[in-house]
Amino acid sequence: MKMTKTFAASAAALFAASAAFADCGIQGAGSVRILSNDFEALRIVNDVAMSCATDQVKVTANATAEHKNIQGPALTVNPAEYTVAVVANNSIVPLLNDGLIRPLDDLVAKYGASLQPNQLIKIDGKVMAIAFMGNGQHMFYRKDVLEKAGVAVPTSYEEVLTAAQAIKDAGLMEYPLAASNKPGWDLAAEFVNMYLGTGDEFFAPGSAELAIDNDNGRKVLETMRAMTVYMHPDYLTYDANELNKLWDANSVAIMTQWGSLAGAAIDPTKANPEVIAGTGFAAAPTIGGGSVPAAALWWDGFTIAANISDEDAEASFQAMVKGISPETVAANADVATWLVAGFEPGPTAVGVIGNASGGARAYPMQPYMGLLHTALSAELADFIAGKEDADQALADVKAAYDAAAKEAGFLK
Amino acid sequence: MPHRTFLVFIAPSILAMVLFITLPILSVIVQSLFVQHEAVLITVENCTPFGCEKETRVDHAAMQALREERPLGQFAGFANYLNRNHLAVDEIGAILSNNQGFGDTLSRIFNLPFYRALSFTLLYCFVVTPLAMALGFAVALAVNTLPRLMKGPVIFFSLLPMIITPLVGSLILSWMFNPSGILGASLQSLTGDPGLSLRASPIMTWIVLLVYGIWTNGPFSFVVFYAGLQTVPQDTMESARIDGANRWEVTRFVIIPHLAPLATFVALVQLMDNFRVFEPIVGFSAEANATSLSWLVFNDLVGQDAQLFGSAASTSVITIAGVLILLAPVLLRTWRDFNRKAA
């Protein structure tokens, strides 16, 4: 089944590619070497870019989940191992910190006619990346289960809790909620999402001083723990991929899950038909009377390495612009929430677009945000497991973050 | 052998050991004494598809100049070792000087990441090593009594836990222990408790990890002890039997003393291995309830977006020191035996 889907997707990509092949027309010669994360939308972009290869232009792509760990060293060497690094809000930061990517203003002026203004990621006035898709965690819910329990689709985490109680009381599901609470990146992302929803800042303005030890921080932690009451006892071992399996097993009614996994949840060739029929998507719930969806907005985009020749940079930029062209997007509309001109959002894009139009905030790009994410990922485990209180958890996070930030030179 | 010939023979190994063991360890030790340069921060306007915001970022040019001047970063002495994410000297001091009794002290110390990891690492070492050796020895004794024809296949099956890659082995077991997996579901129906989950409570998680450790480490002891059993002098065995010793007495008074030096060797290797426990924690998704020193290094390096090389290096050096301390008694004994024999 999976084969068929991959086949169909690559066939679609090839179709888009061959349609585009005639006018791919990269000017000049050079070598294009792409490094990206490994999921379907990025594979399609890579495939289209690779179809631009000619006698003068060589194109190779490496799609790997380890991209974050190899991009730094690979772009530091001169000439860089890769000419293109596909990044997101968080993974662009180390590249910016070390000056490993080049400004793209000239290239945009020359070859970027098909790009929309909102695709340009500008840092200090200079275009440093070209975004092509949006992502984020949003609400998955079961229309049928909510209907049977007699509750409306929740729009806030407080309503999520009432709905969960109603579902449990009606005997429909034992554990109606799920979240990616596995200690590590996932658990920290849950906290970041909800804290963004409170409208508060993570750091004191203009400094690396942590500022989450406040009522909003405690409110977020209390909500996270209140939800665990309605979760399977194994909730500490679930990451995002595991959530989709629970969803497909018909055992969860409401969860916050990645937009990029929405397609798989209602894929008629793979998923459970009963679950597909009942599944609905919506923006992430608000928290604590906040007005914006409590979820971070993410963008995926490409950057061009600094340590490469200008010819390679020009060829790379043109190949990637072709990879994310409106034709590619038109042929693969249901794969991602594209930020490209002419994209018609399908049912799986509802959640991410709902987050964006509801005013959700982007995942912070501060250089020390990664350190906070690491501190959260290890120190929240005890709290979520019910072994310590919120004050202790926030104090632990601050202590762990301070130690790491001192080592990284952000705090004295 | 003349000293010259000996040196020529051993030179390539010494060179390889210096290149691949000594130098990397020295580099890790040096790394652990440094922290990164103080970041030069500037505030800039960032625009993304979701709007513009004033955000802080690192001034790359200024950092470049600092790094060229001193590529290792700022010298910090033992700051990496003593901070809260490692030995936490200040925090321990505060806890010891102001606490509400022994239980409170203990729970606050184990709330610190390093001590939490150390406690599980040591428990794993001291539970898994002897039990895995006992299991290996028992299997070796059993296999040794089998008829020749059956020995081959039985040895192969007994070695399977060691042949399987630890990460893969722990993943497979973790799925079997999942409430919808074969072991998890069977346990639920046997105990009649539909909420029973081996991955939910810390104690259960620890037991599963320890059992996994014994299962995966048993075969190594088995192989070594089985080889050792082939060298037990048959005439001693025979005379013991003629003297009326039963099977247990033969084992206790002939076989075990004969295998004792081997047991030292196995214990050394296993202690070293178990002190570096890592794969089962990842495989069983047990990070919430059990961490180890190696897991701390992993978390510093590849967990997230920012890498902490100094922190990872100091945890590694502490791990090496820990292995040395663990092995010290055994090494000392071997050294004394060696001297006694030489004398």
Automatic annotation (TrEMBL), chain A:
Entry keyword annotation includes Signal: yes
SUPFAM superfamilies membership: Periplasmic binding protein-like II
Record's keyword terms, sorted: Signal
Presence of keyword Ribosomal protein: no
Transmembrane segments: none
Signal peptide: 1-22
Family annotation (PANTHER family): ARABINOSE-BINDING PROTEIN-RELATED, POLYGALACTURONAN_RHAMNOGALACTURONAN-BINDING PROTEIN YTCQ
Record's protein name: Sugar ABC transporter substrate-binding protein
InterPro entries: Bact_solute-bd_prot1 (IPR050490)
Lineage of the species this protein comes from: Bacteria, Pseudomonadati, Pseudomonadota, Alphaproteobacteria, Rhodobacterales
Highest taxon in the source lineage: Bacteria
UniProtKB/TrEMBL annotation, chain B:
Pfam families assigned: BPD_transp_1
Domain ABC transmembrane type-1 residues, every copy: 118-330
Subcellular location: Cell membrane
GO cellular component, one term: plasma membrane
Membrane spanning residue stretches: 7-30, 121-143, 155-177, 203-229, 250-272, 308-332
Chief site of localization: membrane
Residue stretches in coiled coil: none
Source taxon at top rank: Bacteria
Keywords: Cell membrane, Membrane, Transmembrane, Transmembrane helix, Transport
Membrane topology recorded in Swiss-Prot or TrEMBL: Multi-pass membrane protein
Family as reported in the entry's similarity comment: Belongs to the binding-protein-dependent transport system permease family.
Protein name: ABC transporter permease
Organism: Neogemmobacter tilapiae
Taxonomic classification: Bacteria, Pseudomonadati, Pseudomonadota, Alphaproteobacteria, Rhodobacterales
